TrEMBL record:
InterPro entries: CHP03085, DinB/YfiT-like, Maleyloyr_isom. It comes from the Bacteria. Signal peptide: none annotated. Transmembrane segments: none annotated. It comes from Acrocarpospora phusangensis. This is TIGR03085 family protein.
Amino acid sequence: MTQATQRTHAQAERAALSDLLDRLGPGEPTLCAGWTTADLAAHLVVRERRVDAAAGIAVKFLAPYTRSVQDGLSARPYPEVVRMFREGPPRWTPYGLVPGLDALVNTVEFLVHHEDVRRAQPDWEPRALPADLDDLIWRRLRAGARMFFRKSPVGVVLRRAGTDERVGAKMTDPAVVLTGEPQELLLFAFGRQDHARVALDGDRDAVARLMKARLGM
């Protein structure tokens, strides 16, 4: 495979997540509270293909319309919805019109949702990611740490396992140091604390409060 035709990490995660959704079927659990695999597949299609409804994912007063659109997609045949996600957005959407937007926005989105499905199943184990994807995740963590942990009730320092690299995510006392591989720190930062394999060092009460905090975007 030449460099010109090599898939981006976003494309690889899209393909792998699509395969997993197809293999599991529509009624399996995910780490997204209250969502089955059918719900998650519909969400992924809405955010890429329904420009009119995607804003409600982040904007509260628009959320009812987004939910209605997503519920409509969830009611369609599941293989069709997964196929729509696998094929990607139409060319007239922002993802099709803006070069590089897919890789910029979807690499982390798809990786997190891929793990939402994987880690909701029994006997899961962390994946070994390509070194350059690990590095990319760490860069995203460094850039977004303060936003991800803005609602944390305690201070947070992220430490990349096996290195001296660290970043202050919230500078207050008491503080908890999270140590792990970049993907594990990312999942913790996105509110998947119970399914992220990290070491937490700090005051016991501070650790407990951080584990229950609402984190993420």
